[in-house]
Write a structure and sequence with these properties.
This protein is mostly helical. The protein starts with a helix and ends with a helix. The chain is built from 17 helices and no strands. Among the domains are: 99 residues, Cyclin A, domain 1, CATH 1.10.472.10; 126 residues, Cyclin A, domain 1, CATH 1.10.472.10.
Length: 400
């Protein structure tokens, strides 16, 4: 009983408009939706502007009041006053005055951008400016591609002494295999990219797995088969490689070696080769349109393919040295500024590689392996293998 009385007294305190019996007091009738939740007349009083004893309702502009305000020049219901709900309109998002600075397209460039423009101007025209409107040149992507090649090159480079881990083959057998594959490459009329990728696959496979001399040629034809599938539009069939190897291996052996090779290499076929760098460096040197210089540089690079001692140089260094030596042989600037900038090498760092290419060039006519020499003695390649050059390419290279 005491609990009920306490609850009733609490309810009366929260609802002063009620009596103890729970009925509303006289004269305190609640308006519909104006007193929901037994909150009394607080919300209604706010809308009406106070208690019943006050005159009018604040915030509501009647027709008579508006006429009086107009007569005395007071504020009306415009943007400077309040609206019919007694609230001020939202402030405009526009600037309050005209002193806000406006950036003009003709404004001078910031100092950093101006310095960048001066630096680009000092470097001269970009080597891709002539091809920027050619969609096949992919000029916007070339910097990213070359950056990828330079980052990837050390990862796919083989050790220059990996042959020491082989028990049954040596560097001379490797040279014979690659020299034969050059002839196979010509016979099948394959793309240049296929030959360079073939040599890369052979070296990476021999570095990772021991091979007997009986299966060395099988590794070579399988590497060319994989490279052809990767680079060519119409790759030679397996039976073509069976025939070209004089049926030393059958179809099943080649396909089985293909699976082994791809698993050993973890299907990593997207690798930079000499050709990727050489094409870029020829363009940087400004001789990409000179077919004789291109053929000469290509000849030097392909002379390096069978030679095991050239593995001590990066592909990019061999390519840069070949381009530099080719420019020197044809009376061009051997070390153009753009070539050094795009290759990342300086002039002294290329000397040892140029010396090695010079030695290969001088020995080529009398060497026992002549596939590359015969290839570049043809008119198709401007007979660059028989061109008269200085006794020492490196001397002409550095003295120019």
């Amino acid at each position: 009983m005491e609990a009920m009385q306490q609850f009733a007294s609490t309810a009366d305190a929260e609802n002063p408009g009620r009596q103890l019996n729970g009925k509303p007091q006289a004269g305190a009738a609640r308006r519909a939706l104006g007193d929901i939740g037994n909150l009394g007349n607080t919300l209604a009083q706010k809308v009406q502007g106070g208690k019943d004893g006050e005159k009018g309702r604040t915030g509501v502009l009647t027709r008579r009041a508006a006429a009086q305000l107009m007569a005395v020049g007071g504020p009306t219901n415009d943007s400077q006053g309040t609206d019919s709900w007694g609230t001020r309109p939202r402030a405009s998002l526009r600037p309050r005055d005209g002193n806000v600075p406006v950036v003009s397209s003709a404004a001078p460039a910031p100092p950093i951008e101006a310095m960048a423009e001066l630096r680009r101007a000092s470097l001269g025209p970009h080597i891709d400016d002539a091809d920027k409107n050619d969609p096949l040149a992919a000029c916007p992507f070339i910097p990213h591609m070359m950056s990828f090649y330079k980052r990837t090159e050390p990862k796919v480079r083989v050790a220059d002494n990996y042959m020491s881990n082989q028990c049954d083959i040596n560097d001379k057998m490797r040279a014979i295999l690659i020299d034969w594959l050059v002839d196979v490459h010509i016979k099948f009329k394959l793309m240049p990219e296929t030959l360079y990728l073939t040599v890369n696959l052979i070296d990476r496979f021999l570095e990772a797995k021991q091979v007997t001399r009986k299966h060395l040629q099988l590794v070579g034809v399988t590497a060319m088969l994989v490279a052809s599938k990767y680079e060519e539009i119409w790759a030679p069939e397996v039976r073509d490689f069976v025939y070209i190897s004089d049926r030393a291996y059958n179809r099943d052996q080649i396909l089985n070696m293909e699976k082994i090779m791809l698993n050993v290499l973890r299907f990593n076929l997207t690798v930079p080769t000499h050709l990727h760098f050489m094409q870029r460096f020829l363009k940087a040197a400004g001789v990409a349109e000179n077919q004789e210089i291109v053929a000469y540089a290509t000849y030097l690079v392909e002379l390096a393919l069978p030679d095991y001692s050239m593995l001590k140089f990066n592909y990019s260094k061999i390519a840069a040295s070949a381009v530099s030596a080719a420019c020197s042989a044809y009376g061009r600037d051997p070390v153009p500024r753009a070539l050094l900038r795009h290759s990342g090498y300086n002039e002294p760092s290329l000397r040892d590689c140029v010396d090695a290419l010079d030695l290969l060039y001088s020995k080529a006519p009398t060497a026992s392996l002549t596939a590359v020499y015969k290839k570049f003695s043809a008119e198709k390649y401007h007979n660059v293998a028989n061109r008269d050059v200085p006794t020492r390419l490196s001397d002409a290279h550095m003295d120019a």
